[in-house]
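SAMPLE LOG
Freezer: B-3
Tube label: C17
Construct: single chain, 430 aa
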Amino acid sequence: MPPLARGADDWTQRQKVKTSEHASPPAFIAPVLAAGVLMAMLMGTRSSMGLFIGPINTATALGAATVSLAFALSQLGWGAAQPVAGLLAGRYGTARVIVIGGVLSAIGLALITVAASGPALMATLILAGASGAAAGGAPLLMGAVAQRVAPDRRGAAMGLVSAGSSAGQLLLAPLAALLISSIGWQGAMLVFAALVVAALPMARVFGRPPDAAEAASQAAPAIDARAALREPSFWFITAGFFVCGFHISFLTTHMPGVLELCGFSTSFSGLWLAIVGGCNIAGSLASGWLMQRVPMKRLLGALYALRAVGVALFLLLPPSAGVLLGFALWMGFTYMATLPPTTGIIAKLYSARNVAVLFGVTMTLHQVGSFLGVWLGGLELELTGGYRWMWMLDILLAAAAALAHLPVRESAAGTPATPLRPALAGSAAR
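STRUCTURE (predicted):
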């Protein structure tokens, strides 16, 4: 072998060894664990908010529509803050954004306990939601993990982080129900604020830059982030995630009210939400495993189709405890299983370093869906005393989301990726 070729081969082997060393289990585990814990606290708190609607309405006498609108605006604030959090992380560092967002979110949760008017309740919930997006939002944390994990492990990493979010719901939903019944909703809200602060030390993991070998592994061809916004595939994916927001937020916010109309207690509502969270741990892990083996667009289409079928069966069957728990199992397996493949396909098409901003845009539309799911659910409850039309709309939207993924392309474009701003490319160094 010629000396030049032999030297090039030796250099290639050294790079492979170096990449293997940097992708060792500790390097893989630390960002996944930190992101999972942060999402568990923030998303678990957010997923349990539906348990507070009834007590807050009783305490303030503002009416179901006003209280639901306040919670819906919180969802909207959560979404609007996602791309902003990504840009701020690129300029000031991920760890700083997480800590400042977490502190502000805790302050917002604490202020909810003294909000007696509609505008005050809306302002405090928007503060808690928008700042919570910075501390525990999926785009920021998934993007940070994607930059620190090799592509061949990215599916498992996304599934584990999403499972961490589900574990938060599994633990915090029954805790919220217990605290509300024992120390009142104000005390429960203050406990949740303290839990958010307690999770913030995990942000230090993201104060360290990703390894050079991992950063180099992200250099697969993809298009510029701004060009992605002109791609039909990106908007088909985003449209599906809009439906995901509508579906999830309607369930987590109004399912306690649905169960109350069926004659079940708050503790049963907490159990229902906990089962959804527990099953979603398995669903998220399975989704992360499957996205490495089947086309992600097909996986997403199947998940939305399963949601539509699940809601249809729920409407057709009598509302017994067994049926309701079966519905929790079905929804749990598909509930947040869309998160890993949605993040994964964006990273595959448009580069991992663009995930925080691009998925932030997708999450913004997700939260517009969340706003509509929460607000329209409360509006229908006040007008009709039930949720039947919301369930029908949910079925139609889920079916549309399944079809929307058919034209999505799943091969990366051939032009090199360029970050949205120079600051984003250098975010790791800060």
